[in-house]
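pasting for the record
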Amino acid sequence: MQKLIDSYKDKANVQFLTLNMDENPGLITPFLAEHQLSMTVLPAYSYVVDTLNVYGIPQDWIVDGQGIVRLKGTGYDNTEKWEQGMTEAIEKVKVAETVSTSGVDAKPQ
């Protein structure tokens, strides 16, 4: 995840947020420091369980600029296939948004 975030760090039109489900939010900062991670993490246990009804983690969501969920995935893949797949999906959503904002209809994926 950090490699993917780093590859988009200079692109203002892509933002990454991590929703943390630990019941103790005090674990977040030490974990980030220990693993040298620079991602935005929101303590969100109640929100994830009560509002999103998510129980399987980790999950990856790509949400476009209009708030439409364009991709949802569950699970973890520690190979470069995950990073490549996420990059391709992000770029596909960005192209769809560009087409949509230029006056041509783009359908949700």
